[in-house]
């Protein structure tokens, strides 16, 4: 189950990114890489129309992934 921070929800609204698109990115990402902090991972998915989203996830908690930011 994903938990979205208020920051992530705001960015998703601004960029018209749905929870379904975030889930799709996390399930089908083409690129992943860590931030400097080992607990933070970036997942990138490019849709066939060229739209690219990057989902930044705090994977520190083993029971839930917490989306902390979403960017297109």
Could you characterize the architecture of this molecule?
This protein is α+β, with helices and mostly antiparallel strands. It has one domain (2-71). Helix content is 28%, strand content 39%. It has two helices and five strands. The protein has helices at 6-15, 19-28; strands at residues 2-4, 31-34, 40-46, 52-58, 65-71. It has a five-stranded mixed beta sheet with strand order 1-5-4-3-2. The protein is globular, with a radius of gyration of 11 Å. The model has no long low-confidence stretch (mean pLDDT 87).
The major sheet is characterized as:
5 strands, mixed
The helix content is 25-40%
Count of discrete domains: 1
* SSE series: EHHEEEE
Question: How much is the radius of gyration in Å?
Answer: 11 Å
Strand order of the largest sheet: 1-5-4-3-2
Separation, N- and C-terminal Cα atoms: 22 Å
> Count of helices?
2
Q: State the secondary-structure class.
A: alpha+beta
Shape: globular
Mean pLDDT: 87
How many runs of DSSP E, i.e. beta strands?
5
Low-confidence stretches: none
- Please state roughly what percent of the residues sit in beta strands, choosing from under 5%, 5-15%, 15-25%, 25-35%, 35-45% or over 45%: 35-45%
Could you name the key traits of this structure?
28% helix; 72 residues; 2 helices; 5 strands
């Amino acid at each position: 189950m994903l938990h979205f921070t208020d920051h992530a929800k705001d960015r998703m609204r601004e960029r018209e990114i749905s929870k379904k698109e975030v889930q799709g990115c996390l399930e089908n990402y083409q690129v992943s890489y860590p931030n400097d902090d080992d607990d933070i991972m970036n997942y990138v998915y490019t849709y066939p129309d060229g739209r690219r989203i990057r989902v930044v996830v705090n994977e520190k908690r083993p029971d839930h992934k917490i989306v902390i930011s979403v960017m297109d």
